[in-house]
Fold:
Amino acid sequence: MPNNSNFPYDLRIDAQRQKTDFDSLAAIGVDGKGGVHRPALGEAHLAARAWFREQVRAAGLELRVDSAGNHSAFLECSDHFSPVLLLGSHLDSVPHGGRFDGALGVLSALEVLRTIKEAGIHLPVNLEAIDFTDEEGTLYGFLGSAALTGRLSHRDLQSPRGGRHNLLAGLKRAGLSEAGLLNAGRDPSSLAGYLELHIEQGPQLERAGVRIGIVTGIVGISSYRLAFIGRADHAGSTPMLDRLDASLGASAFTLAVRRIVLEEFPDCVANVGQMQIEPGVFNIVPQKATLGLEFRSADQGTFDRLETILLASAHTEAQRYRLKLEVEFLAKHLPTPMSPLAQQAIHQAAESLGLSTLPLPSGAGHDAQYLALWCPAGMIFVPSVNGASHSAREFTRWEDCVNGANMLLQAALHLALGRK
Amino acid sequence: MPNNSNFPYDLRIDAQRQKTDFDSLAAIGVDGKGGVHRPALGEAHLAARAWFREQVRAAGLELRVDSAGNHSAFLECSDHFSPVLLLGSHLDSVPHGGRFDGALGVLSALEVLRTIKEAGIHLPVNLEAIDFTDEEGTLYGFLGSAALTGRLSHRDLQSPRGGRHNLLAGLKRAGLSEAGLLNAGRDPSSLAGYLELHIEQGPQLERAGVRIGIVTGIVGISSYRLAFIGRADHAGSTPMLDRLDASLGASAFTLAVRRIVLEEFPDCVANVGQMQIEPGVFNIVPQKATLGLEFRSADQGTFDRLETILLASAHTEAQRYRLKLEVEFLAKHLPTPMSPLAQQAIHQAAESLGLSTLPLPSGAGHDAQYLALWCPAGMIFVPSVNGASHSAREFTRWEDCVNGANMLLQAALHLALGRK
Structure:
């Protein structure tokens, strides 16, 4: 071991190696507009995972793939039976998403393990850099972390938000199974903690001129599928007042969602991100309009009230246009505070690196909300230029990416060594 | 020839044979809900055409298929160079449509030719029972009649309302080509007239207690594709007021279309039958919302005003939500009066059959609007129960179907013999 008295807190990741990784990964599933298209368990996502496996082997780390498809690099820096400090994120993207979301966290976790391996540090924990399956929810959402923490039931897999057909097709493509997902739960005592580096995906750090966000908690997220049901009629010969036009209820509700959130829930957000009309033909009055609704709040009481009022509004708009309403609950992730212990370790890391910090809640969901049920979990945010994310406009300055990876390294060391 | 003095006006079609045809045809593309699914040039539609060819051969009629795929039975009941009186309709359906729309007109035209052939009548015209390609517009709309009347240009085929990809796939499936469509035009002087039997697809005949509708004209129909364009953002971390949500413009416009027609254009109808949201993901703010708009009016001046006001409203709603608007004009069919000569022949037929009549405009578009540009064209309507159409609920009492076929027979004779 070097005999520098500040060791290992003067360790830094290899920024050039991190950049090479970033560029390689950003080329997988590249969509021609500067973003990436890597929906979970699609071809491009599986290619990114193949890339990850190759890097793990090249770094001389141990590759582990669990029955939920979660990919890990493992570094034994303690005795074999010590708990594991997990560092990670995800390699899947939303359709036509950005290059930083998830990818930055995975490759930085990998780089942290390489750095610690090379330094030959002994820690009271072992380290694992993990790429979780389907964080983004094109299939289910936080699928890998839910599976790892044993939070997945047979029932959950029957109506995933991406559709059951797509889930089964994805599992098949990846050589996975429902049984594997349901049996991927680990022993809670095997986890010493979880740290994730991620881009903010919002404008707050940039607006405040701060380099590092210390996440205080993750908002609750609920999703529903709402179907407004009318009657198909000839769009030429059926008088306007005789129609039961499903598109009217769906349109009125879409506008109502925005009005309700703006007027009554200023700290919340909601999105109608999907709308399908059936039969979807120019000359037929819409028989069915199906919406995908998602809403978020950091506060449990507010979260519950928002749900009640949005669903009541859907019923009101359906009645207004003489439509039936079918409400399908899809998923709910409760508001989750981050561990004070992990927040403290992140704060110490920022002090040791001389970086300014801002405590802030995450408006986006992350796998950390599942890990937080089992172990001290924390998240490090770096600034998103113009707050853009989930699009090709997503961008984080490279200096901030390097800061983020060093933050992850230092926070991991502080959290691990703080356990001694 | 029989020496009955009222011959051929006492001729009647064979109702049992017509029923057998109807049941055979209704079984092709049956969708399990009592309707049929025979989108133009899809497998089921091509199967219906194979059935038609078989019936033509079995009846000893001459089969003709033109380069637009229009299928005909031909009966020479005059000298070879006499003009043709066309009788027909279409065998394609809207997606999950009814059993009567189009099919009744084609099989009745075929039955009329069989009846006249068996009676051995000589007429001043030859007869042709035609099944037009893609009347319903799942690909283009009135494709076969537009091609036959030389109204199709290369440009028209570039952005058909069903999408160019689908058009090309359909042509390929049917062994047709774009060049064939553009070269299917006949000589206008070859046509003596056009008569079509069709279900009303609206409630007026039933409400008036009348058996036969004499169509006075066909409404004008215009269709547009409107894209409201915003910006994709993360639906959790982007504040509501920072969003450029394309679904809001589309929803507001959908509601505005109905309000405008109800308040300012009580004699018109409009439909937003398609709505697609991109990227269509729960946790991404909609970047693009594409609507399919169709509107109709029987009066040219009103038709023009309606177009102006609807498009202005689309711009207004786009601006309200800070969205861009892309307007793509798809097709326009002008309001088309039916020929007084054809209406008179239909009226005479109803008198000879002792059936009550109601003159009425057609709110639905029909191939007759193309044929009317070239020859005396007329349409016979029979009642639709509850006015239902373009759905499995479509129903016309069998007695009315038989009346309709006899009306087509008698009107054809009156129109043909009135030429003498």
